[in-house]
Amino acid sequence: MPDHADLIVIGGGIVGLATADRWTHRDPTRRVIVLEKEPDVARHQTGRNSGVIHSGLYYKPGSLKARTCRRGKAMLEAFCQEHRVPWERCGKVVVALDQREGERLDALAQRGLANGVECRPIDRTELRRLEPHVAGVRGLHVPETGIVDYVAVCRKLAERIENAGGEVRTRARAAKIVRTNTGAEVELATGERLHATQIVNCAGLHADRVARLASDEPQASIVPFRGEYFELKPDARGLCKNLIYPVPDPAFPFLGVHFTRMVERDEYGPKVECGPNAVLAFAREGYTNRDIDLDDLAETLGSASFWRLALRHWRTGAGEMWRSFSKPAFVRALQRLMPDVRAEHLEPAPAGVRAQALAPGGRLLDDFSITADADGRVVHVVNAPSPAATASLAIAEMIADVLDGRSTPRA
User: Fold this and answer.
1) pLDDT tens for residues 71-90?
2) Mean of the pLDDT values across residues 390-404?
3) Which of 138, 207, 376, 393 is the most exposed place for a label (fewest CB within 10 A)?
């Protein structure tokens, strides 16, 4: 007989762990198993992002991103405070480099205020007071933006799950999912079988593939985009006091290269990351331009939706790719925000890969997307890019409501 649980969560990133934690703490008599294919939790998107606690500034008012980011931010801060996870509310500035960007900055400020974000326009004098080395004609100050150690959050969530009687199994890759009369059965790559009344797919970069394991056709396919970073060397860290962002391009789903002071410290003080760009990764876990998985790449290049996206944004994509191979080009992009930064100030930092969901026709899914079968036995988190880490506890609350029949999923 296969081992039985009330719930199996596939994926040991922050959304999967938060879901397992929220669900099991509603009723400690229920048993949950989290399956993570890596040797430890938070190895991919969760552990390779810039560690920002987003305020909710960028997202369409009323969207899942806006609502869960605002609620999730408050929940995450309270969680970190309670469990002594390193975090800080440090604030950030969004910088307009010219009058055209200033108009977009005004629209961004209105969106932030509509979402309940504490933010205010600032002139060049105040901008330079907050960030003395930044360029720009004016800015937007968002004092409630923060930074956190998301890996530490995940480890605390895993500890809570296990203390409540659940399991977090690492090196446990799901290979097959079969629905049964009483739930669903998961077969691992090792051949072991596990049965659960309900299953949640939080597989991130592999969410579409896990959906297909359950014979479900996802509404979107995952295209991996690598974000590459540099780090300021210790003698240059004083160039950045907190977080410095450009005004985002509304036609492109990424926020542009920026400067992020980290929670992580060494003997010289807090570290500062610079980036990321956004380039097509040649593998779903392709953290360098030398990482190539022919099956992953063939799946991306064989997608008509991907080519429609590529043709629509080819000019922007070409610039991002050039910065991937040219450090001087990357430096020039950083110098638009901070003219004093130099190539010799930078050293390579670990890259991340974002799971970008792409709908038929080449449309980027902008909002979070969660689907479930008719009886709620199998739930798929189809799309959960940034700010999913910030919003994770609120997303988990929503998924737990779906599992418990209190609400319907949102796609």
Assistant:
1) 999 999 999 999 999 999 99
2) 96
3) 376
Task: Provide the pLDDT confidence category of residue 178 given band limits of 50, 70 and 90.
Answer: very high
What is the pairing mode between strands 363-364 and 369-372?
unpaired
pLDDT attached to residue 360: 84
The most distant pair of C-alpha atoms in the chain lies apart, rounded to whole Å, by 70
Give the pLDDT confidence score for residue 222 in this predicted structure.
Answer: 94
Q: How far apart are CA 81 and CA 150, in angstroms?
A: 13
* Residues ≥6 apart with Cβ < 8 Å to 230: 273, 274, 275, 330, 334, 346, 347, 348, 349
Q: Could you tell me the domains of the chain?
A: 3-47+151-220+366-403 (3.50.50.60), 90-145+224-359 (3.30.9.10)
Query: Residue 319 has what DSSP assignment?
Result: H
Give the per-residue pLDDT at 313: 80
Residues 170-179: b if buried by 16+ CB within 10 A, e if exposed: eebebeebeb
Phi and psi at 51, nearest 5°, equal 75, 25
What confidence tens digit (pLDDT) does each residue in 337-381 have? 999 999 999 999 999 999 999 988 888 888 999 999 877 889 999
Measured CA angle at 210 (ends 375, 282), to 5 deg = 150
Tokens standing for 225?
A: 């985009």
Where does the pLDDT of residue 247 fall: very low under 50, low under 70, confident under 90, or very high at 90 and above? Answer: very high
User: Residue 26: how many CA atoms within 13 Å on its side-chain side?
Assistant: 17
Q: How many CB atoms lie within 10 A of CB 7?
A: 23
Per the structure block, which two tokens stand in for 251?
A: 């036609």
Q: At what angle do helices 304-312 and 314-325 cross, to 10 degrees?
A: 90
DSSP 187-229: EETTS-EEEEEEEEE--GGGHHHHHHHTT---SSEEEEEEEEE
3-class DSSP assignment, residue 140: strand
Cβ contacts of 394 within 8 Å, gap of 6 or more? 67, 68, 69, 71, 72, 75
Burial of 258 (0-12, 13-18, 19+ CB in 10 A): buried
CB 73 within 8 A of CB 59: no
Question: What φ, ψ does residue 176 adopt, rounded to 5°?
Answer: -160, 145
Task: Kindly report the pTM of this predicted structure.
Answer: 0.95
